[in-house]
Amino acid sequence: MSLKEQVDITRLPQHIAIIMDGNGRWARKHGKNRIFGHTNGVSSVRETSEGCAELGVKYLTLYAFSTENWNRPITEVSALMTLLLKTIKAELKTLLKNDIRLKVIGDIARLPVGVAKELNEAMARTANNKRMDLVLALNYSGKSEIVRAVKEIAVKVQKGEIAPDAITEEVVSNNLYTAGIPDPELLIRTSGEKRVSNFMLWQLAYAEYFFTDVFWPEFTREDLYKAIIDFQNRERRFGKTSEQLVTK
Ligand code: IPE
Ligand code: IPE
Ligand code: MG
């Protein structure tokens, strides 16, 4: 049986989040510069998006650029921004063809104007697509996202729109960038690193984590299927005992 056939499509995670890591090390392994790694990571984005949409996954979030990534050499940051711009332009047709809606989480306003404009346009053009949401985390930081939500809620309290006692987990969720998007059930990180690097700190509270040594540019649909199969073989207990789950 192929890996794809081993995926139980009746028990798919509805939201998968991926920390796409290892572009630089993959490039070095091939004797090339880091930018070459980023460029080659684009095909993995395409593979993974199509693979998810084909299976019936409803939300795919990709960590593409963290707020911390601004600290990289300026040449690498510029190359990443140029690549982003080129990729959005080039992939818009595919998004439309595949009925995929593009969303962004993170502080778009601080991206180069050209990039922000292209993103806003692609989001508007795909806004009515229904098959899957492709969520790009760009200039994203989980801590900043929570701070931003706290500020928004504080303003509402100050205006008397909400009482402090009425602040629930749902209220916090609704003030995050991901408002309206269910929390990811599965987080994948490539390249062998085992950390969350400030990614979706609130939303990953009960996700299953899958780590693979594969570098992002070499990540294929088969690797995606492996992660989903692994996820489907886990027992998600949410604090209960194993016995309780069986009798449920
Ligand atoms: C992930 O690959 C891409 C971004 C963070 C933009 P890296 O560029 O982090 O690659 P490594 O971790 O240095 O190998
Ligand atoms: C995390 O990767 C951010 C993205 C994948 C965009 P990094 O390579 O920046 O993470 P650290 O610095 O190794 O934790
Ligand atoms: Mg890295």
How would you summarize this macromolecular structure in one to three sentences?
The protein is an alpha/beta fold. It has helices at residues 3-6, 23-29, 34-55, 74-97, 113-125, 142-158, 169-174, 221-232, 242-247, and strands spanning 15-19, 59-66, 100-105, 132-140, 186-189, 208-211.
Written overview of the protein:
This protein has helices at 3-6, 23-29, 34-55, 74-97, 113-125, 142-158, 169-174, 221-232, 242-247; strands at residues 15-19, 59-66, 100-105, 132-140, 186-189, 208-211. It has 248 residues and is an alpha/beta fold. It has a single domain, classed as Decaprenyl diphosphate synthase-like (Undecaprenyl pyrophosphate synthetase, 3-Layer(aba) Sandwich), CATH 3.40.1180. A six-stranded parallel β-sheet has the order 3-4-2-1-5-6, with helices on both faces. Helix 5 links the parallel strand 3 and strand 4 (132-140). Helix 2 packs across helix 3, helix 3 (34-55) packs parallel to helix 4 (74-97) and helix 4 (74-97) packs parallel to helix 5. The two termini are 31 Å apart. The relative contact order is 0.19. The mean pLDDT is 97. The structure holds 3-methylbut-3-enyl trihydrogen diphosphate (IPE) (2 copies) and magnesium ion. Residues 20-25, 65, 69, 80, 191, 216 line the site of one 3-methylbut-3-enyl trihydrogen diphosphate.
